[in-house]
Backbone:
């Protein structure tokens, strides 16, 4: 069943019947972002941030294959696509094996290591958000040549857009390297990132798209296993300072989304998704969602291993990743991503 339905509002017997028509299901899902949304683009660029090796993808259907997704299986974008009646898995744009017709109903431009700040991607040799939008321009032109101008314009205009990024800007950039700290205070950097997210939405909207946008906020950054391990003040506990940063950023992002929904022409629907609230609840009460461990990751010790460290022969993984909220020390398990996807699908415009 599609996300958007045509509803009938029936008046009492004998009265006129009024029909309210809601937009039909989107014909495509178009994704931008970082490792939370990269379905394999980094496999095709020169970067160390790849997940095309075991144990990543060990539960990816069918049979388990390392696709480049930083999880044991599918990502939130894949589940969103399936819920919309689109492909069960979102193909990466940079994979030459996929024709433009294969990409017409679902495509990810996301790159692990990227962020809202282009400098974040440059640090990790990832595809910047600016370049992802350039790839979208190329995609739009390729689609036009394949299916015609009117059909391509319809896909681009009515697609659902997902922009999933931001965590790496704090964890892999601002808090790790001094470059941005010399220029911005932390609140200034938060505002800078929200401005970058706004600019991205406006840029895609100007290209004929971004009329339906979902902007997931940051998760509880301080509760990632890696950040718990680095919390010297209270080892093993969530880092309250980082969680406060995430909440403050999310408030800014939410306000921006609401303002853009009012300002963009054509009745744009720009919706903030409260990932923080959803994941904080799962972490606090894992048993209520079928998990046994919401503190450590499935890979290795569960505290520090991610990326190549998870791929080492000595980095054992748990037997059942569905029991873990996190698959590695930074990224969620497939089961947890499904919960995030449900929040994205059911997020509604205010």
Residues:
């Amino acid at each position: 069943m599609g996300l958007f339905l045509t509803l009938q509002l029936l008046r009492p017997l004998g009265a006129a019947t009024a029909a309210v028509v809601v937009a039909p299901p989107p014909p495509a899902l178009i994704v931008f972002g970082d490792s939370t949304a990269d379905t394999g683009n980094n496999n095709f660029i020169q970067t160390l941030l790849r997940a095309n090796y075991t144990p990543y993808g060990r539960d990816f259907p069918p049979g388990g294959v390392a696709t480049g997704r930083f999880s044991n299986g599918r990502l939130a974008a894949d589940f969103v696509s399936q819920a919309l009646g689109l492909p069960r898995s979102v193909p990466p744009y940079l994979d030459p094996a996929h024709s433009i017709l294969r990409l017409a109903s679902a495509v990810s431009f996301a790159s692990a290591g990227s962020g809202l700040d282009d400098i974040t991607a440059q640090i990790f040799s990832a595809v910047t958000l600016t370049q992802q939008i350039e790839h979208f321009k190329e995609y739009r032109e390729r689609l036009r040549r394949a299916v015609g101008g009117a059909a391509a314009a319809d896909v681009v205009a009515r697609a659902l857009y997902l922009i999933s990024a931001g965590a790496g800007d704090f964890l892999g950039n601002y808090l790790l390297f001094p470059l941005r700290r010399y220029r911005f205070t932390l609140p200034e950097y938060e505002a800078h990132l929200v401005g970058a997210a706004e600019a991205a939405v406006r840029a895609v909207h100007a290209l004929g798209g971004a009329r339906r946008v979902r902007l997931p906020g940051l998760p509880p950054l301080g509760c990632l296993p890696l950040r718990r391990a680095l919390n010297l003040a209270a080892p093993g506990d969530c880092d309250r300072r980082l969680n406060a940063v995430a909440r403050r950023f999310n408030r800014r992002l939410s306000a921006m989304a609401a303002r853009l929904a009012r300002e963009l022409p054509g009745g744009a629907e720009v919706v903030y998704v409260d990932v923080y609230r959803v994941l904080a609840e799962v972490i606090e009460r894992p048993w209520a969602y079928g998990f046994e461990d919401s503190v450590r990751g499935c890979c290795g010790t569960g505290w520090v291993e991610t990326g190549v460290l998870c791929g080492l022969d000595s980095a054992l993984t748990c037997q059942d990743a569905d029991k873990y909220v996190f698959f590695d020390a930074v990224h969620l398990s497939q089961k947890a991503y499904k919960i995030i996807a449900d929040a994205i699908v059911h997020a509604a415009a205010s």
